[in-house]
């Protein structure tokens, strides 16, 4: 009798386990497919607006990077654009001052600069917790901004960094006036980053970070250092944000001070909350919805678009606190459970 | 044989309140010690001090003769000093399998790896399954912790400590909050602990203490007032006095 119950339980745990393993792969594939389909749809539906779509991808990388530290690790920050801007300036300066015009090398420069900025911001921010930490993040993004403003011989200061020239991508594809190449380049970058981050968030390290978010004391009690892990996540986050910054510099061929502004940081946080924190899909959905909404509403009603963005946010925060993606996911799984329970 | 765990003249005061008053004790491999004392005696504080969660006012902690007083909590865990919590500290959004997977990965130095998933690692899963089985949690392996009963969460708390393969294990009231029906499992798990592991258990249930401990230490208002055989503890005049009028008097008389 007991034996039988046990073996049934064992069997069901085994099934769960197999389903979990299979679930990773299928969700990865869905994710990649969703990005490809949305990217293709964007290309077909808005062929004249590829610049906007490429900008959405660059900002999506910023929001993904924010999700890594805020959504996965619980570090609240209003200074994430410091990492994004560092990547943008690094990529831009490589071309404008050093004549390194290869888009891949410029991207690599952006990744490295973003990672270094991530390390610096991480070291400073992780000295504090809660509200002081948030204040530190704001102080950091202002410092980065002011530094870029003062170092105008390198960055162009408030005029922005211009003089970025691009070699053809892989030596084959010219960056055209319509932004086709930049868009494809952006989509490919996003796919690569998304795939790598999917691996990272379910790795042992990803699991450790989720633990840190919930209870750092418990993490210390199993012998792991939350501080070390968070610094590492900050470096990864910086690399992702730097990729976005580099893409933005490459696609627009200018870098403005806005790239490392407080406003950009705050907007990224808004997009993340809108889509749903702690999920890569949430970050992507939030960016897409926010930026399309912003573009659409600001064109339709230039006087009241901010009001409408504000109203949308309030609705989401009050009625769907897990964000758009989190709420849809909950609804779907509730439905699955209901249909599952009707089986004997 | 030398001590695996030694505490020398440990002191701690919160403001004017002395919570740990010149506490010294040592444990050998394989020791089974129960630390008892009225509520507020300073038992949990003692665990917090020796694990590095709190800084002592003075005194020293040694692990296998190495002073660890200046080493942080994680360094002490890595040296084999592991604790459980009186009030369960678990990750509500994670499953028991994930908790144990994380503990095993951390112990084997793999918790910082950026790729792969523990569910697909036979070496990790074998250990995880074994622990789940031993504490009767196998069927709940993939439920979120917030969906499982508190008694089972207590069992998981113990399983995590075991997953770290400690050499000194400090258990802070492992049976607190566990329904009667499940205390058997806790006791079984305690009885099957590795023979060379030194265990210090804080516990109020005197039956459990007498079955488990070969040695009892009594703490009252931060001071050790008894350190000896279980058979002698109930006869000790100071112990009776410390417990007098308190709930445990009945238990000690039994
Ligand atoms: N962080 C703290 N600050 C001030 N007093 C504390 C703190 N932690 C514990 N205490 C006090 O120290 C005493 C011992 O507490 P504790 O170690 O939890 O006792 P026990 O575990 O034996 O019941 C209690 O009087 C408690 O109020
Ligand atoms: Mg206590």
From TrEMBL, chain A:
It is found in: Cell membrane. One of its GO terms (cellular component) is plasma membrane. The chain crosses the membrane at residues 29-46, 52-69, 81-98, 104-124, 131-148, 182-201, 234-256, 268-293, 305-325. One of its GO terms (molecular function) is branched-chain amino acid transmembrane transporter activity. The keyword Heme does not apply. Keywords: Cell membrane, Membrane, Transmembrane, Transmembrane helix. Pfam families: BPD_transp_2. It is a multi-pass membrane protein. The keyword Membrane applies. Coiled coil: none annotated. This is Branched-chain amino acid transport system permease protein. It comes from Rhizobium wenxiniae.
Automatic annotation (TrEMBL), chain B:
Residues 5-246 form the ABC transporter domain. One of its GO terms (cellular component) is plasma membrane. InterPro entries: AAA+_ATPase (IPR003593), ABC_AA/LPS_Transport (IPR051120), ABC_transporter-like_ATP-bd (IPR003439), ABC_transporter-like_CS (IPR017871), BCA_ABC_TP_C (IPR032823), P-loop_NTPase (IPR027417). The keyword Transmembrane helix does not apply. Keywords: ATP-binding, Nucleotide-binding, Transport. One of its GO terms (molecular function) is ATP hydrolysis activity. It comes from the Bacteria. PANTHER family: ABC TRANSPORTER ATP-BINDING PROTEIN (PTHR45772:SF2), CONSERVED COMPONENT OF ABC TRANSPORTER FOR NATURAL AMINO ACIDS-RELATED (PTHR45772). Belongs to the ABC transporter superfamily. This is Branched-chain amino acid transport system ATP-binding protein. It comes from Rhizobium wenxiniae.
């Amino acid at each position: 009798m007991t034996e039988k119950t046990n073996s049934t339980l064992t069997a069901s745990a085994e099934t769960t386990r197999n389903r979990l393993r299979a679930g990773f792969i299928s969700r990865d594939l869905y994710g990649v497919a969703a990005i490809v389909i949305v990217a293709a749809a964007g290309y077909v539906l808005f062929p004249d607006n590829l610049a906007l779509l490429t900008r959405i991808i660059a900002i999506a990388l910023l929001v993904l990077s924010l999700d890594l530290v805020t959504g996965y690790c619980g570090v609240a920050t209003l200074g994430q654009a410091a990492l994004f801007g560092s990547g943008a300036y690094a990529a831009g300066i490589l071309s404008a001052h050093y004549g390194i015009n290869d888009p891949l090398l410029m991207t690599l420069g952006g990744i490295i600069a973003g990672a270094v900025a991530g390390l610096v911001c991480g070291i400073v921010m992780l000295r504090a917790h809660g509200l002081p930490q948030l204040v530190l993040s704001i102080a950091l993004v202002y410092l980065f901004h002011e530094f870029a403003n003062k170092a105008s011989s390198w960055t162009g200061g408030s005029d922005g960094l211009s003089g970025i020239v691009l070699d053809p991508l892989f030596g084959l594809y010219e960056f055209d006036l319509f932004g086709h190449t930049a868009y494809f380049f952006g989509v490919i970058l996003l796919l690569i980053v998304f795939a790598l981050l999917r691996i990272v968030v379910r790795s042992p390290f990803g699991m450790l970070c989720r633990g840190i978010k919930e209870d750092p004391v418990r993490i210390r009690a199993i012998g792991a250092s939350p501080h070390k892990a968070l610094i590492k996540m900050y470096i990864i986050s910086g690399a992702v944000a730097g990729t976005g910054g580099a893409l933005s510099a490459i696609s627009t061929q200018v870098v403005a001070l806005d790239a490392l502004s407080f406003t950009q940081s705050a907007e990224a946080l808004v997009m993340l909350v809108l889509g749903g924190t702690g999920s890569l899909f949430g970050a992507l959905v939030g960016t897409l919805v926010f930026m399309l909404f912003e573009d659409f509403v600001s064109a339709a009603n230039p006087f009241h678009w901010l009001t409408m963005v504000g109203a949308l946010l309030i609705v989401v925060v009050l009625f769907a606190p897990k964000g758009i993606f989190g709420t849809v996911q909950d609804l779907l799984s509730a439905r699955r459970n209901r249909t599952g329970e009707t089986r004997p | 044989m030398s001590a695996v765990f030694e505490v020398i003249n440990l002191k701690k005061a919160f403001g004017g309140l002395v919570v740990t008053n010149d506490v010294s004790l040592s444990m050998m491999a394989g020791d089974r010690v129960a630390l008892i004392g009225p509520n507020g005696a300073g038992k949990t504080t003692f665990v917090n001090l020796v694990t590095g969660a709190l800084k002592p006012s003075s005194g020293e902690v040694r692990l296998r003769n190495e002073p660890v007083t200046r080493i942080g909590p994680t360094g002490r865990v890595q040296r084999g000093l592991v604790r459980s919590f009186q009030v369960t500290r678990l990750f509500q959004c994670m499953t028991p399998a994930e908790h144990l997977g994380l503990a095993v990965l951390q112990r084997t130095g793999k918790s910082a790896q950026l790729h792969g998933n523990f569910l697909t690692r036979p070496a990790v899963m074998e250990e995880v399954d074994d622990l789940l089985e031993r504490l009767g949690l196998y069927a709940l392996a993939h439920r979120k912790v917030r969906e499982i009963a508190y008694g089972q969460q207590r069992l998981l708390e113990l399983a995590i400590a075991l997953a770290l393969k400690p050499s000194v294990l400090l258990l802070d009231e492992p049976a607190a909050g566990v329904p009667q029906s499940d205390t058997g499992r806790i006791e079984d798990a305690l009885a099957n602990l590795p023979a060379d592991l030194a265990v210090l258990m804080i516990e109020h249930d005197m039956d459990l203490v007498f079955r488990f401990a070969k040695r009892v230490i009594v703490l009252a208002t931060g001071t050790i007032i008894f350190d000896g055989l279980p058979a002698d503890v109930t006869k000790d005049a100071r112990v009776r006095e410390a417990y007098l009028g308190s709930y445990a008097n009945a238990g000690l008389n039994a």
